[in-house]
Structures are given as structure tokens and as C-alpha cells.
UniProtKB/TrEMBL annotation:
Key words, A-Z: Cell inner membrane, Cell membrane, Electron transport, Membrane, Translocase, Transmembrane, Transmembrane helix, Transport
Species of the source: Shewanella electrodiphila
Name used for this protein in its record: Ion-translocating oxidoreductase complex subunit E
Main location: membrane
Function description: Part of a membrane-bound complex that couples electron transfer with translocation of ions across the membrane.
Membrane topology: Multi-pass membrane protein
Amino acid sequence: MTNYREIAWQGLWKNNPGLVQLLGLCPLLAVTATVTNALGLGLATLIVLVGSNVLVSLVREFVPKEIRIPVFVMIIAALVTCVQLLINAYAYGLYLSLGIFLPLIVTNCVIIGRAEAFASRNNVTSAAFDGLMMGVGFTAILVVLGGMREILGQGTLFDGAELLLGDWAANLTIQVFNVDTPFLLAMLPPGAFIAMGLLIALKNVIDSKIEQKKPQQAPEAIARARITKVG
């Protein structure tokens, strides 16, 4: 019986692909200069992750083990192409902003890893839920990292939201504080490395606090028997 609570806990926190497994770091650090870019890439990755998990689970009984990885990559590449064309058609500004990192979703280790480790061994429902939770966990880290960098770098939130949501979203931009000169360290990849390190450290601190609050189990007493030799 599938433990959906455990799958959700693994994807969102305990085994988060971006925060714990450190997978997909190339797009994670490159496009998270703003929340809009981070959310756009995160949603694209989530759609591909769920779709690939479902398709891999459906064909797992028919694919020989010797060629399973090439087949999985072909499935992922087909889904990425569909998502790329949709973004190109309906969010062209975001398409230009994300650039090469959209087609590079094909090589994202999160997707091929879940296809091989989970989807190829479980039913469709479990595979879809696993893809959803892993995708939401990865998107959450992208958005948090993008928010940190955007606030520190240019003092705004949701700048360029119209690129993702349409012209009506231009008013969603929040001016947290005025910046005369952008803080380039936060906007460039080195700032992303620093921010990511802070997030990992924060997670480790939270995990330590949670572990300390758990009731400690007393060590089991080991009974020793004394054997007396009888002549």
C-alpha cells in the first residue's frame, strides 16, 4: 500500500531534490535572479516531472531493462519540447528570459532520477504523486532562492510578472525598498551559491531542532547470564 504522506514528506522536505539531493543546480543557480524566472522554470520542470513519471510508469512493463534509460530520455525530451513550444507561444517574454535553460530540462537529474528510481517501479497514481511532490519541492526552492536574490539585488518582488502571467500582472510588482544601484553579487551566480548555502544551513538547523524534540529512546538493557560449570 502506497504511503502518500511519506512520499509528500520526502519530496517537500526530507529528500528535497534541490535542497538535499542538490540536483538541477545549473538552472537552480542561473535563472533564479527573479521570482518570475524561478516560478516559470519551476512550473515547467514540474509539468515535465509529472508527465514523465506517468508515462514511464505506463510503459515500464514493456521496455527491456537494457534500453530503459534511452527510452526514458526520449520521453522526457518529447515532454520538454511540448512545454518549450507552449511557453514560446503563450509566454514569449519568459521564453526569451529562460533561454537555453528550458531545453536543458531534458538533462535535469531530478527528472531522470525519479523516472528510474520510482516511476519505473510503481503504479501510475503513485508515480504521478511522487512527480508532483518532487516538482513542488524543487519549485519552492527555486522561488525562495529567487525571492532572496531579487530583494537583495534590486529591492523588488515579482518584477516582470507579466512575462509569465500576462499584461494584467504588471501591477503585481512589489517595491520592497528603493535601490539606486543593483547589488550585483546577489544578481550573479556567486550570490546564488551563497544564498543556497544559507538555505541548506537553515534546513540543517531546523532538522537538528526537530531531532532534539523527539523523545529519546532508552537503550535496551542487555541481560547477562552467568554460566557455572558443574563438575
